[in-house]
Amino acid sequence: MQHSKTLVMTFTRNPELGKVKSRLAQGIGEKAALEVYIALLEHTEKVLHQIEADKCVWYSVAVRENDLWDDAVYQKKAQVGNDLGERMLHAFTDAFQQQYEKVIIIGSDLYDLQPTHIREAMEALDTHDVVIGPANDGGYYLLGMNTLHKEAFLPKDWGTETVLKDTINDLKTEKIYYLETLNDIDYAEDLLPYETFKKYIS
Predict the structure, then answer these.
(1) Which of 46, 93, 105, 168 has the fewest CB atoms within 10 Å, counting from its CB?
(2) Which ranges constitute the DSSP H helices of 50-157?
(3) What is the pTM of this model?
(4) Strands ordered across the beta sheet of 102-106
(5) Which CATH number fits domain 6-196: 3.90.550.10, 3.30.465.10, 3.40.630.30, 1.25.10.10?
(6) What is the three-class DSSP state of 7?
(7) Which run of H or E residues covers position 75?
(8) Contact yes or no for 55/75 (Cβ under 8 A)
(9) What's the pLDDT score for residue 2?
(10) Please, what is the average pLDDT of the chain?
């Protein structure tokens, strides 16, 4: 199912009550957190749908068929690895083994993500080794490469505010392009800027 030299990937958790957005659930409850997560997945799919590239969804547990992600559009695989770094390394390695020339991964919990961010990243990989989209919580929402840089996935405190800084330190010799910083939705207060999610925090 390879049509393009570029692959855009996203990691997703199967949307099940009590198994997604645990930090958000502490603030708004598990049912509301699940509803928000499904809305974020739908937004991510809508964004990806507008991108001219091959696409792959990596599932946290089991691959689902006939779900939000159209089987005719998305390659579907199950994540492999003990932590986020290992899982991303496996996904990028898999993509480059398939001879993709540009590989990008995006988060699935950004309501601010737009197709323009992904297109800008794709273009930047013509002149840079790595593209990073910083998130305002100290992590990143997008990582792109035109060749495998394993050092980006070295062990670090994934899910903390030092992830971006540590990744940049590990990539010290590479030419990095930065996208604009976006808001990552992890906590109840992260919902405040959005009309759609106001009902969960009022």
Answers:
(1) 46
(2) 84-97, 115-124
(3) 0.94
(4) 74-78, 54-59, 6-12, 102-106, 140-145, 130-134, 176-178
(5) 3.90.550.10
(6) strand
(7) strand 74-78
(8) yes
(9) 66
(10) 94
